[in-house]
Design a protein that fits this description.
By secondary structure, the protein is α+β, with helices and mostly antiparallel strands. 17% of the residues lie in helices and 37% in strands. A hairpin with a 4-residue loop joins strand 2 and strand 3.
Length: 82
């Protein structure tokens, strides 16, 4: 399981999303989203030996459309979340 996102952190994430995006789902046009309450991770890939490195990766915040289920992954680093 990932690290839980606190209510204060969730508020910062929502503020960032409102400032940086138009919040319209690219598939169905809905504007209703849910932010996952845990951080996720996209593992790093090392092309030199063709292995996924599970001990390294990119911390992501997942946002899912309430209508169609489309999920967007935002970099927590880019959001200045960490």
């Amino acid at each position: 399981m990932g690290e839980k996102i606190s209510d204060q952190q969730l508020s910062r994430i929502i503020d960032w999303l409102r400032q940086k995006t138009d919040a319209t789902c690219p598939f169905c046009g809905s504007r209703r989203w849910t932010v996952d309450n845990e951080l996720s991770s996209a593992p790093a890939y090392h092309s030199g030996d063709a292995h996924v490195q599970l001990d390294r990766g990119h911390t992501m915040i997942l946002v899912t459309c309430d209508n169609c289920g489309y999920t967007a992954a935002f970099s927590s680093k880019k959001m200045a979340f960490f």
